[in-house]
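Let's sit down with a protein and look at its sequence and fold side by side. Once you have written the record down, we can walk along the chain together.
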Amino acid sequence: MHLDKNDPARSGKTLPRLAKAALGTLLLFGAGGIAMAQNMVVRSTGPSASSYPAGKKMANDAKISLKAQDQVTILTKSGTRVLKGPGTYSLAQGGGSATSASRRLSSFITNRGSSRARTGAVRSAGATTVETPSNPNLWYLDVSKGGKFCVADPDGLVVWRPDYTGSATASIVQPSNGNVTEIAWGKGSALKAWPKEVLPVTDGATYRLLGSNAPQSVDVNFVVLQNQPTDLDDAASMLIENGCTGQLDLLVEKLDLNSEDPADQG
């Protein structure tokens, strides 16, 4: 196909998008048309952490050499693999089940609805304990967690509370002027829409939250994503790039629960 040099498709943002698409295709299939799906490091601790930083991508035939006290969590197409040193591992081995983590976790990453996990009563040896549920959606703002928070949908931000057996309130403070806005949950309700009309959800905005059942206040700094992630890889990459460690920890926790592979021990 011939493109005229004056064709608007050759200017602006169209060409970069085409170039990125072509590059992505090349990385995925290679020159010979063989699939080269990559794996991503999502957590790394120990002496070799600098060699395997969060966000690092590796081909399926890559080898990882770990020292004592090293632990690396890798996102694969099948879920997660937790590698513990000392030892040398090949990512071509131990790929896990054929069930795709992307499919199993799609609702956790993309859901914008009102699905929620209930607290559960667990009976053991005559005693009853109540388990606090984990955040059911990657983009729900946990009222008890501070730090950078990546916002995928500024118009639909939802505040979630972990303990919703009774009614509760939360105070949202604007540090710049001290103004306080309160939100309230009814008994048994876990979700509350962020009051965006009063408190804009903008990139870089910082708010202080204090829930009525929380021991202390937390500061939240919004990072508004330019594009909503479409899959697991996109979500992990965006959280790592923007420093949204709380959500990354939640994602890894959810991946660990869904992964069917035990940790690889060297």
